[in-house]
Amino acid sequence: MGEETGLAMHNQGWKQERANVSLPEVHQSLKIPKTGSWFRKFLAFAGPGYLVAVGYMDPGNWATDIAGGSMFGYSLLFVILLSNIMAMLLQSLAGKLGIVTGRDLAQACRDHYSKPVSMALWVLCELAIAACDLAEVLGTAIALNLLFGIPIIYGVIITVLDVFIVLLLQNKGFRYIEALVITLIGTIGVCFLIEIIWAKPDAGGVLAGFAPSMELFRNPEMLYIGIGILGATVMPHNLYLHSSIVQTRQIEQTPKGKRQAIRFATADSTIALTLALFINAAILIIAAATFHTTGNTAIAEIGDAYHMLAPLLGTGAASVLFGIALLAAGQNATLTGTLAGQIVMEGFLNIRLPAWLRRLITRLIAVVPAIIVLAIVGDSGTADLLILSQVILSLQLSFAVIPLVKFTSDKTKMGEFANRLWMNITAWTVAAIIAGLNIYLLYQTFADWFS
Fold first, then answer.
1. Which residues, listed in sequence order, are joined to residue 249 by a DSSP beta bridge?
2. Residues ≥6 apart with Cβ < 8 Å to 250
């Protein structure tokens, strides 16, 4: 009876029956215990949230956090907090869409929109994934250069080998991917915890930074960096990713089973994003405590931050830990970018390529432009490339957020799980804020380029 109820709900409000499941090789591959404590069940659900959280601490975030901390001290911590709260709301909706409908966001878009609109959304999403992959490739290459002296252009080529890591793990089972991601997040967290202890930030200044400030709207430069932080924090491909990977759990296809799954998935992503909030805030706090307070307010590049940390904190280990954390962040974002690429292509186009080929295509879309730019302008072009990748992500964001809010608000698609009125108002407000701020960010960026 449960399975029939589930199928009825899957087809409710949709034009076509669901043709394929999302990520078929791992779909419903993890069993959830039917008995036992709340904590045991929560542990069985825990994992997807950490894969999503990776996108909130990828190398693209580092540049904006470092620039914000070095230029304005602790003032932009409020923006990081606000971005994370928005992310928690949107990721909870993405998880709910996947659990209730059995479709990921890409599959839902393909069903709901006309073919031209659906294809346009696919192209935009592929651009966003390529931009995100570019930030990850550059982050990993910069880390390899800083730690081992490998030229950045060779580091970019080395990142192509990541393809094989993902394939190996996916063949072993989804829990292996989750375990590696959580280990790498833990590594980043420990590195920054040690850095914060060494940096000795002003506790009062940190607390004040989390409070809203009108200076953000009075200072155009601060607003620009603030919007950059928001653009780098909320990632469009993460919404597609989350709506798919929550379906790796074998849940009861009944209203009660889905309600429980939504509760656990939301708790999982909220805890994981709180950890991402700590890491993002830590980067900004370290930049504020180390650079801003010593008058180094122009540090905006990852390489500069790496070289300046050791002399300012009085220990060479500070730069090494920073480099290790950057390498872990780049590798982590690579893993989740791979999965997102597969979900988006299969969901929008309903075609399946061998995993290694799909991964190679995604990686080359990022690696080729990086190699061309580095060959023309040298390593100094990496900062501009990172900023460009964040601008492309900002441009694409609303094209993922608006369909997500629209679908989860629709009673014919979601049944009793459709967003309540308060959730609808909140979600549409967040969508409007993100759209407005990103339009402003793009306007400012292009105005700077042409001036």
1. 30
2. 28, 29, 30, 31, 32
